[in-house]
Amino acid sequence: MRRARGPGGSRRSCSRRCHRKRRGAPILTPSANIYQSKVIKKGDIEKGFAASDFIVEGTFRTQMVEHVPLEPHATIAMWDANGRVTIHSTLGRITLGRADVARTLAIPISRIRIVATIVGGNFGGKNEITTEPVLALLSKKSGRPVKSVFTRPDEFIASTTRHPLIMDYKTGVTRDGRIQARKIRLVLDGGAYCSWSETTLGKACILSAGPYNIDNLYAEAHVVYTNKTMTGAMRGFGAPQVCFAYETHMDDIARLVKMDPLDIRLINAFNEGSLSPTGQSLQSVVVKESLLRAAEKFGWHTNGKGGANGSTNGGPKLLESENANGNTVRA
User: Fold this and answer.
1) Which one of 158, 162, 215, 244 is most buried, by most CB atoms within 10 A?
2) pTM for the complete prediction?
């Protein structure tokens, strides 16, 4: 057997906080820095690896990304004579924001009105409150309307970002490129506080195997607290990160078995009625049709990108060496 290694919900379930509430108060932290975990099992992973001619491994990483909306976060808060606060905000989800402000200030939601202004770009970064409760308190204290507009540095420091991921993949395939087993481990960087990490964790784990028929699958994902900027919602909720990993991994496999990257995807891609990793029967599946249409429009074969050795434009070179178990191919 050859082995190859490639290139290096509810979001409010956290019961403890990892920040100091007031001077002299204890810092409350979880028992570990793992905030939430998810595991998906399908078939017999070890049996699948035993039936494979090749086992390909790869580790992939993605970085933290700021949304950088054209218009920054902006808010105005003011109270009326009846003890009700009105907040004009660039929030993209004012109903959720209203509930969050009520919870944060510990006042009835009926006393809070949030008026949606022009958002000016969201992409997930304006899904949740930032300065709204603070401005409400300042306005209450001063008896005057209070306004705040983030600078661009404020956006990078005080708003949420996309989750960085470390993704380990191990896939067993036959000589003709058919996937027999896949094992995945994801670690999501949640930053210093819990936000939309549980939602992102679930989506990333469910989608991590890719749009491929895999009878034997084990996927585990963990989101962890770190001493970094809080991560949260951003377009895709974990899908772009794992898509980068599993498609790069498929290119590595194609190179090893000397197959066209398009062909190996067509062999393994979902069909009508295929089951997802969680057992959902998929309908209106056009993965193969989309691949073939894209290849035709791009001129995949006529432009010299296809072929038995896979894509010709870069990628890892596989080097062969010996170990106690026989031939080992590593990137």
Assistant:
1) 162
2) 0.81
Q: Which residue has the higher pLDDT, 23 or 285?
A: 285
Fold (topology level) of 74-158: Aldehyde Oxidoreductase; domain 4 (3.30.365)
For residue 295, give the H/E element and its range.
helix 287-298
Instruction: State whether the Cα torsion 292-294-299-302 is positive or negative.
Output: negative
Q: For residues 82 and 246, what is the distance between their CA atoms, to the nearest angstrom? A: 56
Cβ distance 253 to 300 under 8 Å?
Answer: no
CATH topology of domain 2-11+26-66+163-330: Aldehyde Oxidoreductase; domain 4 (3.30.365)
Main-chain dihedrals φ then ψ at residue 35, nearest 5 degrees:
-85, -45
User: Per residue in 313-331, pLDDT tens?
Assistant: 333 333 333 222 333 344 3
Phi and psi at residue 110, in whole multiples of 5°? Answer: -65, -15
Domain boundaries defined on the chain: 2-11+26-66+163-330, 74-158
Q: What is the DSSP string of 59-83?
A: EEE---EE---SS--EEEEEE-TTS
